[in-house]
Design a protein that fits this description.
The complex is a heterodimer of chains A (113) and B (115). Chain A has 113 residues and is an all-beta fold. Chain A is built from no helices and 11 strands. Chain A is 0% helix and 59% strand. Chain A is globular and about 45 Å long. Chain B is globular and about 35 Å long. Classes of the chains: A mainly beta (113), B mainly beta (115).
Chain lengths: 113, 115
Amino acid sequence: GQQLNQSPQSMFIQEGEDVSMNCTSSSIFNTWLWYKQDPGEGPVLLIALYKAGELTSNGRLTAQFGITRKDSFLNISASIPSDVGIYFCAGVNSGGSNYKLTFGKGTLLTVNP
Amino acid sequence: DSGVTQTPKHLITATGQRVTLRCSPRSGDLSVYWYQQSLDQGLQFLIQYYNGEERAKGNILERFSAQQFPDLHSELNLSSLELGDSALYFCASSGRPIEGTDTQYFGPGTRLTVL
């Protein structure tokens, strides 16, 4: 089946630093999603990308849909302690009654105040 | 608070048993999705319902089934439970089937432990 390689697996950074994480796949997706999950909570959608090459921002977050449709990255600028959590990418292929969503393994982000 | 509720929060049961997990979507949302999250498999999409009908299937085992009722709440039934079924089960809801600009809102999850 489709596999997503998300990296890095974990990051430990200082408050104020910028963060970058990415997902790559051998398969093409027509939608890329980025989620954040806090401990004990369900994932929360951060950014959704629907077109190859699309660059979208949400506050301090910026994500891009790779031009090959096989990759995406998420950047967080000027990190703050509440950015701590697990970040997941997800690739979606859908059409008609067919729908497949594949998640990456996640990036654990720790921010040192 | 996403507006999606799931019960129970925790469930401990034995191998071979059957359990039912319940999800109430956000008010007005027609789509419900079920996910399984485990350490070794990560987050996996199981199944989607839209307005009472099955819309899409992911990596759902034959021992698992789901349904969405007329009031739009959904139940995930897990039977002949195995140790490997221990995981967090999330429900998410959205207003429309996930095509285009749709956003899924996740519930807090049900933690299932199979002993």
